[in-house]
Amino acid sequence: MRAVPIELKDAQAYINQYHRHHQAAHRDKFRIAAEKDGKIVGIVQVGRPISRVLDDGYTLEVLRLCTNGEKDVCSFLYGKAARISKELGYRKIITYILETETGTSLRASGWKCEETNVGGSDWDTPSRRREVIPHQLSFFPEKNKYPINVKKQRWSKELK
After folding, report:
1. What are residue 60's DSSP bridge partners?
2. Which CATH number fits the domain 2-158, given the four candidates 3.30.70.20, 3.40.50.300, 3.30.1310.10, 3.40.630.30?
3. What is the pLDDT of residues 10-22, one digit of tens each?
4. C-beta separation of 6 from 40 below 8 A
């Protein structure tokens, strides 16, 4: 398996085809494809943290990681994303997974579970009222853009 560059539109098409519960991110800082026997077997999209609190200029977030089910691709891509982020001068990389997922690939890549039971609440807050429609801002209405009431785990890796 090897890492190869991939254009944003091609990465988005792959993620929109294979990701179980999200569409591709519209923007990112960089993306990497994993290639095996001449075929793309996975993609990782890395960008600025979604949370304003965590967006300190020295942290990146794995926005999407998607594979076709090939063994060890997730660990490979998490590791590559962290190494590239470190080379770019970032100090930390984070990602979120569903509360129901085990994090085996993250653990195998040296990441640590930082917090559980995060996110997943409604985007409507008293200080910033909004009505969230599941397909709002989505070009792919068959997948909800913002799953509501699905708790997550935040994983991170210090890039020293």
Report:
1. 93
2. 3.40.630.30
3. 999 999 888 877 7
4. yes
Ranges of each domain in the chain:
2-158
Q: Give bridge partners of residue 36 from the DSSP assignment.
A: 39
CA distance 149 to 145: 13
Task: Work out the burial of residue 43: count CB atoms within 10 Å of its CB; fewer than 13 is exposed, 13-18 middle, 19 or more buried.
Answer: buried
- Tell me how far apart the alpha carbons of residues 76 and 83 are, in angstroms, rounded to a whole number: 11
Euclidean distance between CA atoms 10 and 52, whole angstroms: 28
Query: What DSSP string runs through 93-149?
Result: EEEEEETTS--HHHHHTT-EEEEEEE--S-S-BTTB--PPPTTTT-S-TTS-SS-SS
Tens of pLDDT, residues 24-39: 888 999 999 999 999 9
**Residue partners of 21: CB distance under 8 A and separation at least 6:** 98, 143, 144, 147
Residue 65 β-bridge partners = 44
